[in-house]
């Protein structure tokens, strides 16, 4: 007995969330979005089409896709007052700090989507969020490099628009590389959703209170920032830079196995996948394609990553712990090859994952049985006791 609380060792918090959006089989390395294998979607679909599928549950007809695409393109601009938010940040603010703040501020601008029970409000919110997150990410990047923001262009596809908003400058035209745009589109497909990961669960937890949807998405961005989650893609590149050369791999791996404080093989391991993360295989193939197309097939970081994977997959320490490459292991190599700086890798993850967060938020708020999330705990503190006056302490 813990005093007034009877501690029941059998007490467990049954927070079994129901969802129809994504299915993962961690042992078999299976990932389905609304029943479709992510491998097929990455090869045959587009990110905009996957956004429609993730939100609506079915692949769109040609007309539905065209209307959805048009709606997204027409929501890409930001309220001009939002630019003033960026004046408050220093140029060296971490991009994820700016993403969290600016997305949270959307709550202050949009009052026409506050009725979470109205399907039209939910649809407008999702279209607006999916459309604006690339514009916000590009603006965040421009802030860090001290260049003027670039407006979206509605005649460009989703990924091409983002690349142009990031890299175009008034002084010269920017030519969009179709290989780069396609690679980004595939990466966004692979990051679109992933069941109840930490950031999605955060969005659902915040959303269950009935809060403004933009505030809920901002909480998801904050959770994604962590190096154990979406921040891992940035940590992988820092790790590869730290190792430097293939000859230093054995010494690094020994530090990992000796559990030297703070040394982990970033981009490896997963709470659910105890087999290959199917996304990692696709991204590795994309890496080869993109590097070759950009004339960077001898990228030393790719060579180093492949060597790390080869060693880890043949090392008992990793095999016993079922540690395989995850979605973050190779993605940073592609981002870097596209000219995206390391500190923008996690914002790229957030761009792809926003549709998943919106789909889960919509699924949860549309469910009339949803109640406020309220996990319980196992109490491990002091038993009940009486207050003692300071003179007696
Ligand atoms: C994402 O949930 C999702 O779906 C997330 C995500 C998504 O799409 O939303 O898939 C995206 O976040 C992918 C994960 C990105 N994170 C990283 O790559 C960071 C490095 N990975 C680890 O920190 C770790 O693998 C986690 C956090 C991903 C998973 O942690 P677990 O399952 O809690 O593993 P654990 O900490 O219980 O480790 C089990 C054992 C431990 O060793 P022992 O105590 O048994 O001796 O494996 C070891 C750990 O030390 N281990 C690692 C390791 N990951 C686990 N050892 C070295 N390097 C690693 N990366």
From TrEMBL:
Gene3D superfamilies: 2.20.28.60, Citrate Synthase, domain 1, Cytochrome P450-Terp, domain 2
A UniProt-annotated Pfam family: Citrate_synt
Keywords, in A-Z order: Transferase, Tricarboxylic acid cycle
A GO molecular-function annotation: citrate synthase activity
Record's signal peptide: none
Keyword Manganese on entry: no
Reaction(s) catalysed by this chain's protein: oxaloacetate + acetyl-CoA + H2O = citrate + CoA + H(+)
Pathway(s) the chain acts in: Carbohydrate metabolism; tricarboxylic acid cycle; isocitrate from oxaloacetate: step 1/2
Keyword Transport in annotation: no
InterPro entries per record: Citrate_synth-like_lrg_a-sub (IPR016142), Citrate_synth-like_sm_a-sub (IPR016143), Citrate_synthase (IPR002020), Citrate_synthase_AS (IPR019810), Citrate_synthase_bac-typ (IPR024176), Citrate_synthase_sf (IPR036969), Citrate_synthase_typ-I (IPR010953)
Active site: 270, 328
GO CC terms, sorted: cytoplasm
GO BP terms: tricarboxylic acid cycle
NCBIfam families noted in UniProt: cit_synth_I (TIGR01798), PRK05614.1 (NF004126)
PANTHER family in the record: CITRATE SYNTHASE (PTHR42871:SF1)
Family in the record: Belongs to the citrate synthase family.
The protein's name in its UniProt record: Citrate synthase
């Amino acid at each position: 007995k813990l005093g007034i609380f009877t501690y029941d060792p059998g007490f467990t918090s049954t927070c079994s969330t129901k969802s129809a959006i994504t299915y993962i089989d961690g042992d078999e390395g299976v990932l389905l979005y609304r029943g479709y294998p992510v491998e097929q979607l990455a090869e045959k679909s587009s990110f905009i089409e996957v956004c429609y599928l993730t939100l609506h549950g079915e692949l769109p007809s040609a007309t539905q896709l065209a209307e959805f695409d048009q709606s997204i393109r027409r929501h890409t601009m930001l309220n001009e007052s939002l630019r003033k938010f960026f004046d408050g940040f220093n140029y060296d603010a971490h991009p994820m700090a700016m993403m969290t703040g600016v997305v949270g501020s959307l709550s202050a601008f949009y009052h026409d989507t506050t009725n979470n029970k109205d399907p039209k409000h939910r649809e407008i919110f999702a279209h607006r969020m999916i459309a604006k997150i690339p514009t916000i990410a590009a603006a965040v990047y421009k802030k860090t490099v001290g260049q003027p923001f670039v407006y979206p262009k509605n005649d460009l596809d989703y990924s091409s628009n983002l690349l142009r908003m990031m890299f175009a400058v008034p002084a010269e035209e920017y030519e969009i590389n179709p290989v780069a745009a396609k690679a980004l589109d595939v990466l966004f497909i692979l990051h679109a959703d992933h069941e109840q990961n930490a950031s999605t669960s955060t969005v659902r937890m915040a959303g269950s209170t009935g809060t403004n949807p933009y505030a809920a998405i901002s909480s998801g961005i904050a959770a994604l920032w962590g190096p154990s989650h979406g921040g891992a893609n940035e940590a992988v590149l820092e790790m590869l830079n730290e190792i430097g050369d293939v000859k230093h791999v054995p010494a690094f791996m020994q530090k990992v196995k000796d559990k030297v404080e703070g040394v982990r093989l970033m981009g490896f391991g997963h709470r659910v996948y105890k087999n290959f993360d199917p996304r990692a295989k696709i991204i590795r193939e994309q890496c080869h394609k993109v590097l070759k197309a950009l004339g960077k097939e001898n990228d030393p970081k790719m060579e180093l990553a492949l060597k790390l994977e080869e060693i880890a997959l043949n090392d008992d320490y990793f095999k016993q712990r079922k540690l395989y490459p995850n979605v973050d292991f190779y993605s940073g190599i592609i981002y870097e090859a596209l000219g995206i700086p390391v500190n923008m890798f996690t914002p790229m993850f957030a761009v792809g994952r926003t549709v998943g967060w919106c789909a889960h938020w919509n699924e949860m708020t549309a469910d009339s049985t949803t109640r406020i999330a309220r996990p319980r705990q196992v109490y491990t503190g002091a038993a009940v006791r009486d207050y003692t006056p300071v003179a007696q302490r």
